[in-house]
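Could you join me in thinking about how sequence relates to backbone shape in a protein? Label the sequence line and the structure token line clearly, so we can match residues to local backbone shapes. Once you have written the record down, we can walk along the chain together.
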Amino acid sequence: RRVRPTEQQINMKNAAERRINVRDAFVADAQRVAGRRILLVDDVCTSGATLSEAAETLLRAGAASVSAYCLARAVQDNNW
């Protein structure tokens, strides 16, 4: 669950800004995720910052594993 608003990732200049933007933006209910294998699905993965932060949040809450799938991967330039 998102617990704080974030800027749209499209407005970020690079991957570092995207990671900072979503840091601590999510929480997971340990009672619901503990011991479970979780699948995250994203429409477009650009830097992976949002998926990574969400996965880390779920693992800290006790998820057994977290996998992520995206439907499209953005082409990145050297700034990513």
